[in-house]
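=== RUN LOG ===
request id: a7f3
mode: sequence -> structure
chains: 1
length: 69
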Amino acid sequence: MWGFIPGSKRALKGFYVCTGKQAFKGPMQGKCTSKSLPQDWIEDLVWRDCLALLISQGKPFRRLLQLGK
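=== RESULT ===
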C-alpha cells in the first residue's frame, strides 16, 4: 500500500498493512488495530537478517554472495 506520511510534504512511501484493517471480521474480532510498517524499514531489516544467515552458514553461501556481485 502507498500513502503519505501525515504532516509530510515528501513523496509517496510504501507500507505493509494488515489485511484485517480493511475488512470487518465480525463483532468479536472487529478490525485489526496493528500499525502499518514502512516498506523501506522492514525490507532493510529482513535483508540484513538474510545476509547474516547466509554469512553464518559458511562457504556454500559465501560463494553465492560472490556470484551475486
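=== NOTES ===
The two ends are 31 Å apart (CA to CA).
Residues 20 and 32 are 5 Å apart (CA to CA).
=== END ===
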